[in-house]
Design brief:
There is one protein chain. The protein is 12% helix and 36% strand. The protein has four domains: 47 residues, no CATH class; 78 residues, Sandwich (Immunoglobulin-like), CATH 2.60.40.1120; 205 residues, 3-Layer(aba) Sandwich (Rossmann fold); 104 residues, Immunoglobulin-like. It has 498 residues and is mainly beta. The N and C termini lie far apart (100 Å).
Length: 498
């Protein structure tokens, strides 16, 4: 119930017992009381005298109502969902039964929009017509999504950019909870705050998780299988040691990231081919976004077994990377502020692709092969050299994969010492390949061959790794000393090497 003011008037809301008080200057007033679901009542020319209390009671008549009733269930499983149902534009809200998902709402006749929300599900709305004295039946089916916590660590220094994240999530009808860091480290989330969530989206406009004391929390959360979307232009600067005064170990041990420099040479960001952001380009300055990227970090991957770049600055280094292959968690780290992407559609597409990646299936089949040495191996005529090749099963689920190695184009005597072996998911083996250089090999003669790596689980999966063996090339020794001859040192070393 509220008092509706005219010029010079006021308004208020009753307490739970229907009592109210209005402080007014002396004079005559029209007073109207109204509440949702009731007819309004008005009193005209009610006089207020200075120093006296004027008593005016109201009796409101309830409007005839109809019912909206049904259930809220999970898509696929049909399990009941204890969702919150809100009738938009009214004070009416209710919660569906956790036992069977049923709900029942009494409303005056009219057209209403019901908003149905439960953490871990997409938000659903429906517009319904309610007729007094009748029951409108309507049941809701909610699509499961990750349980999301949106952390705003820009609040404590008055640089919050959380609105851009809300806009993207709301645009996809994702339900989420929020956590604002206002007085770190006192209200920085701890591990028990994060564990109920499948995914934490952390907005760090100018600070970082380590800066607010969350290094241990992030480390434990990821180690427990949680997932993290982290974005901020100075996360690497603070947590990757760029400042020279701060460092947070999770940055390297769990994000597998290294800070390269504090200010990228471009504000154009491109998605890398073959990654979740392939085909996307974005601008992180100008109107349409926060336009706050003064120092977007440039980063690099420290361990390609578990992490890979997914974004780059135009004409500069990495702008973002994904983590999670053969790890119990997944993480996506943007080295710039998500809020700075300067158009709504691109921000939402980045968020959509990111969340799809987080819930995507683990890799079933995969192989990697790389030579331990990145340069050709050199040996004397008649000598033996050994190429070491690391083969890794990048499949993350299922059983072992039997791997077969074969040679193509090996003109010199070449032997694979372990041509067939089995690898469990995420397991790697370094295999020796021995090459005998012909005694008749001439200076700088080379034999280039291909090592074929083939999966048994998926025979179509084959890798071709080029390798090069060669005899020494002639060496030109330049004697540039002026007063202290040193050429004999170099000559002795070359002779000792054959």
């Amino acid at each position: 119930m509220g008092g509706v003011p005219g010029p010079g008037g006021s308004q208020t809301t009753t307490d739970a017992q229907g009592r109210y008080r209005l402080l007014l200057s002396a004079g005559a007033y029209d007073v109207t009381a109204g509440a949702f679901g009731y007819t309004s009542q008005a009193v005209h020319n009610r006089t207020v005298i200075t120093g006296q209390t004027t008593v005016q009671d109201f009796t409101l008549t309830a409007l005839p109502t109809g019912q909206v009733a049904g259930t809220v269930r999970e898509e696929g499983s049909g399990s009941p969902v204890s969702a919150t149902l809100t009738v938009l534009g009214t004070p009416v809200t209710t919660t569906a039964s956790p036992t069977d998902g049923s709900y029942n709402i009494a409303l005056p006749g009219g057209v209403y929009t019901l908003h149905v929300r439960a953490l871990g599900y997409r938000v659903v709305t429906a517009t319904l017509i309610v007729t007094a004295g009748e029951t409108t039946a309507y049941s809701f089916t909610l699509t499961p999504i990750p349980r999301i916590l949106l952390v705003d660590s820009g609040r404590w220094y008055y640089r919050s950019q959380i609105g851009y994240y809300r806009e993207a999530l709301d645009g996809m009808a994702y339900a989420y909870d929020e956590w604002a860091v206002k007085h770190p480290p006192a209200d920085t989330p701890v591990i028990t705050d994060l564990l109920p969530y499948d995914l934490v989206i952390w907005s760090a406009p100018e600070d970082s998780p380590g800066y607010v004391g969350a290094n241990g929390t992030i480390t434990r959360y990821l180690s427990a299988g949680g997932n993290l979307f982290l974005s901020g232009q100075d996360v690497g600067y603070w947590d990757g040691g760029g400042s020279g005064s701060t460092y947070a170990p999770y940055y390297e041990t769990h994000l597998y990231a290294r800070f390269v420099k504090d200010d990228a040479g471009s504000r154009q960001v491109v998605g890398l081919t073959g990654t979740l952001f392939a085909g996307l380009t974005m601008t992180i300055e100008g109107a349409g976004g926060a336009d706050n990227q003064r120092w977007p970090d440039v980063i690099t991957v420290t361990n390609p077994d578990y992490a890979a770049p997914v974004l780059r600055y135009e004409g500069d280094g990495s702008a973002g990377q994904q983590v999670g292959l053969c790890r119990p968690y997944r993480a996506l780290y943007l080295a710039f502020g998500f809020e700075a992407i300067n158009d709504v559609a691109t921000r939402q597409e980045v968020m959509r692709r990111s969340l799809d990646w987080f819930v995507g299936p683990r890799q079933a089949v995969g192989l990697e092969a790389r030579a331990v040495s990145t340069t050709p191996l050199v040996g004397p005529p008649g000598g033996v050299i050994t190429h070491w090749v690391r083969v890794r099963n990048t499949g993350e689920v299922g059983g072992k994969d039997t791997v077969h190695l074969a040679l193509d184009g090996a003109d010199w005597s070449t032997t694979i010492l372990t041509p067939t072996f089995s690898l469990a998911p995420c397991q790697a083996l370094t295999v020796p390949i021995r090459v005998t250089i012909p005694a008749t090999a001439t200076w700088d003669q080379a034999n280039r061959f291909t090592l074929t790596v083939r999966s048994t689980v998926s025979p179509a999966l084959q890798l071709a790794l080029p390798l090069t063996s060669k005899a020494p090339a002639p060496v030109l020794l330049v004697d540039d000393d002026r007063w202290y001859p040193q050429e004999q040192v170099y000559q002795g070393a070359l002779e000792a090497a054959g």
